[in-house]
Amino acid sequence: MMFRTWSRRIGVALAVTLAVLLALAVPVAYAWEGPRSDYRSQYLTRVESRYADTDLARFHYTVAGSGSPVVLIAGGALWGYSWRDVVPELAREHTVYAVDLPSQGYTELRRHDFAYDLPAMSEAIASFLDAVGLERTALVGHSWGGAWSLYFAQRHPDRVERLALLDSPGLDAEKAPITSLFKTPLLGELATTLTDRSFYADSIRGTFAHQELVTDEMIDEGYAPFSRPANRAGFLALWRNLDYRLTDAGLGDVTAPTLVLWGGQDAWLPSSQARRLAERLPDATATVIPGCGHTLHEDCPAETIPLLTTFLR
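^ that's the sequence the OP posted. Answer follows.
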């Protein structure tokens, strides 16, 4: 009898504790904006930084070089800084635009009903291209940026000259291991809101095989725009709304020659997806680079950039 009494009391205590923790967690998850960074980008003082105003957003982008256009689209929680090693090399032969899409960098969204899904991100690419006067361009996308570029190429094949996808989801296949965390109500909000510079740094290191390349500048340049409340909210919405069944179903609609590049040590998405993706595209080749992680162009620039240069030439 005493054991049952104590068991009930412990059960009640645990239930009360859990209820209190949940009550405390909810305002943190849904009301608190999270820690902000006051770091001012040094990279933007070294490049030509511009804005393109549209009804959808005030797009931030950088531009360099001259020649046929190439538009670079970074992955989730990253921005144009991610392409800092790629831009100078491509700019030898191309006009290179590195654009921040909604949820990235220093772009400011103007439409409150923006859906943060594949159709919406495709619309954002079209809006940017229209704003800077590009009817047709080569697209290079990394990770989520590649998925958005792929979907844009499916819907607007006449506007894509060439397409390069770096460690980009596009198959209705294996997802990043952390996906379930961000898709879970409350937990996703907590994870996004509580991400501070240290947690952000750990996440970035997880996308590199050569973690010694992850510098303090890289973390500061990435975390500062990510820490903006609008970017955090967009980041979480993308985790929940990106549906790769759409890209998977439309792979046969891509008419542009496509290069699929993948890091052999990608811990987010298995490199086996590279060839599977290329096999489903009408005109594609796949290359897996050994010893490289998910953020391929930053982790292994010496191997990645020449492949991009040759493909885009």
